[in-house]
TrEMBL record:
GO biological processes: coenzyme A biosynthetic process
Primary enzyme class: transferase
Localization terms from the record: Cytoplasm
Name the record gives this protein: Phosphopantetheine adenylyltransferase
Role this protein plays: Reversibly transfers an adenylyl group from ATP to 4'-phosphopantetheine, yielding dephospho-CoA (dPCoA) and pyrophosphate.
């Protein structure tokens, strides 16, 4: 059985992330969306909130599983018996960083390969940080994220004002 991991912070998951999840889920038998708990990074949503949100967003995809992890991706992949990493390119500027990551992961574990999906044009400008900033200032993010995510963002920023 071919198991792949699509890793990321997903803080929050954008329509671009969801597109990569849907497209890659069609290519593998089992897709694990690995939600990274990066202790060196300040996140808007907790790890549990990000996992819960992604579970809601992917509930219609029976071969997709959402799991959190921390530490090295290659260690997580060994734990879940996966040897294929899914990554997305938004622009040419992503290429150098993504190639470096793929080569590093492959050097740490030669059995791990990386497959790249090119983001659709309509999502090429999207990033979680852009979504967070627009939402923080009350801007309309409904074209950038799923309606469920819009609600999560509104609730989060409202609770921060209290």
């Amino acid at each position: 059985m071919k198991t792949a991991v699509y890793p990321g912070s997903f803080d929050p998951a954008t329509n671009g992330h969801l597109d990569i999840i849907r497209r890659s889920a069609c290519q593998v038998e089992h897709l694990i969306v690995g939600v990274l708990n990066n202790v060196n990074k300040s996140s808007l949503f907790t790890i549990d909130e990000r996992v819960k949100l992604l579970e809601a967003l992917t509930k219609d995809l029976p071969n997709v599983e959402i799991r959190s992890f921390s530490g090295l991706l290659v260690d997580f992949m060994e734990k879940v018996s996966a040897n294929l990493i899914i990554r997305g390119f938004r622009a040419v500027s992503d290429f150098e960083f993504e190639i470096q990551l793929a080569q590093t992961n492959h050097s740490l574990n030669p059995n791990i390969e990386t497959i790249f999906f090119v983001t659709k044009n309509e999502y090429s400008f999207l990033s979680s940080s852009v979504v967070r900033e627009v939402a923080m200032f009350g801007g309309d993010v409904s074209q950038m994220v799923h309606p469920i995510t819009v609600t999560y963002l509104k609730d989060k920023y409202e609770s921060m004002e209290e």
